[in-house]
């Protein structure tokens, strides 16, 4: 990032998704690239969110009134220790190249922290490595930890081929694939039924109602949220539904997105709530992904160790991490320590 700029050259104002659409897309174009995806993302995130329009801030250059930067906080319905609260996820910080210094970005984020605190009970975000120092400079955010990406190999042949001769890799890969598929620890998944769906199952509301916790801080995972977050979003998503093998009742679901031969689990929930997904349910996911031709699985998560037990038992290991920043506005009578948050990739904008 370039040295700090003279911030008297700039002004931050509250934007409007309808009025300022062209300005926002123009700034994104200088930062993000893919035109079709930008337009689809704007329509979804800024124009059709069922929880209201995001808080959008526009940075303009004094004198010219030219828009040179944007930042936003998108609304989410969350629960804190059983009571509903409003949250804003910090997204889309972008400044055009010739103004890309510390000062303009800092102005945007400081104003977003101030105005976001007036609108939302909770603000949170996942800054990349370049943006993380910015939040330390602002001084009002806590850093309760990091959201961690975990991964699990399903087909070992390609993995082994990077480290040994092809013939040996083929043989070893076949043995390792067979070993995990026949592991007796996976027995629970045989009492379950895994079914793919391109849409949100009506049973998710009942599952949420009987599992919604009275502790922790987490997004309301009902059908309204899932339809908007996944069905209507620009990136295609499929749901793996885990049902009771005897009565067909929904026990858990996984929201999944493909990237070549890797299947990313963007969100999941089970009847166990914050206790996490069981080993058997994760085994059902692994077998379904394997049958669908995927070579690996990944899952990104910030939360309790208890909620990770099933994933670790199933062989998922850490691959990367990003900082989490968050702050309470002070408006709530009931709050909780920020390390009680339960977050997945679904808690971002995409």
Blueprint of the fold:
Layout lengths: L9 E5 L6 H11 L3 H13 L7 E7 L4 E15 L2 E13 L6 H18 L2 E4 L6 H7 L3 E12 L2 H6 L4 H16 L10 E6 L5 H9 L5 E3 L3 H9 L6 E7 L5 E10 L2 E9 L8 H13 L4 E7 L2 H9 L3 E12 L12 E4 L6
Parallel strand pairs: 4-5, 8-14, 11-12
Antiparallel strand pairs: 1-2, 2-3, 3-4, 3-8, 5-13, 6-12, 6-13, 7-9, 9-10, 10-11, 12-14
Helix pairs in contact: 1-2, 3-4
Description:
- 32% of the residues lie in helices and 33% in strands.
- It has 350 residues and is an alpha+beta fold.
- The chain has two domains: 7-140, Aminopeptidase (3-Layer(aba) Sandwich), CATH 3.40.630; 148-347, 3-Layer(aba) Sandwich (Aminopeptidase), CATH 3.40.630.
- The protein has an eight-stranded mixed barrel with strand order 3-4-5-13-6-12-14-8.
Summarize the structure.
The chain is α+β, with helices and mostly antiparallel strands and 350 residues long.
Distance between the termini: 25 Å
Helix-strand sequence: EHHEEEHEHEHHEHEHEEEHEHEE
- Give helix % range: 25-40%
Oligomer: single chain
Query: How many domains, as an integer?
Result: 2
Helix count, per DSSP?
Answer: 10
Strand order of the largest sheet: 3-4-5-13-6-12-14-8
Q: What does the main sheet amount to? A: 8 strands, mixed, barrel
């Amino acid at each position: 990032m370039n040295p700090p700029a003279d911030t008297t050259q700039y002004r931050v104002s509250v934007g409007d998704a309808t009025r300022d659409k062209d300005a926002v897309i123009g700034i994104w174009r200088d930062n993000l690239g893919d035109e079709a995806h930008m337009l689809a993302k704007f329509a979804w995130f800024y124009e059709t969110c069922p929880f209201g329009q995001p808080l959008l801030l526009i940075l303009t250059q004094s004198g010219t009134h030219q828009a040179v930067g944007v930042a936003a906080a998108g609304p989410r319905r969350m629960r804190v220790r059983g009571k509903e609260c409003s949250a804003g996820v910090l997204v889309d910080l972008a400044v055009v190249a010739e103004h890309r210094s510390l000062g303009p970005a800092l102005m945007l984020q400081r104003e977003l922290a101030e105005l976001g605190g007036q609108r939302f009970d909770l603000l949170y975000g996942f800054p990349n490595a370049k943006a993380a120092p910015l939040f330390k400079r602002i001084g009002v955010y806590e850093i309760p930890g990091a959201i961690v990406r975990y991964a699990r190999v399903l087909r070992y042949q390609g993995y082994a081929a990077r480290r040994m001769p092809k013939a040996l890799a083929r043989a070893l890969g076949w043995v390792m694939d067979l070993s995990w598929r026949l592991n007796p620890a996976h027995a629970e998944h045989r009492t379950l039924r895994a079914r793919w769906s391109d849409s949100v199952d009506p049973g998710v509301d009942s599952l949420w109602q009987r599992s919604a916790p009275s502790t922790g801080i987490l997004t309301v995972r009902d059908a309204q949220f899932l339809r908007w977050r996944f069905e209507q979003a620009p990136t295609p998503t499929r749901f793996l539904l885990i049902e009771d093998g005897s009565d067909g009742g929904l026990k858990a679901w996984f929201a999944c997105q493909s990237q070549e031969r890797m299947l990313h689990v963007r969100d999941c929930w089970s009847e166990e709530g914050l206790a996490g997904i069981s080993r058997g349910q994760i085994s059902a996911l692994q077998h379904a992904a394997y049958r669908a031709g995927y070579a690996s699985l990944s899952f990104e998560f910030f939360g309790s160790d208890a909620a990770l037990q099933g994933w670790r038992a199933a062989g998922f290991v850490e691959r990367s991490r990003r900082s989490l920043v968050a702050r309470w506005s002070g408006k709530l009578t009931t709050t909780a320590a920020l390390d009680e948050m339960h977050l997945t990739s679904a808690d971002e904008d995409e």
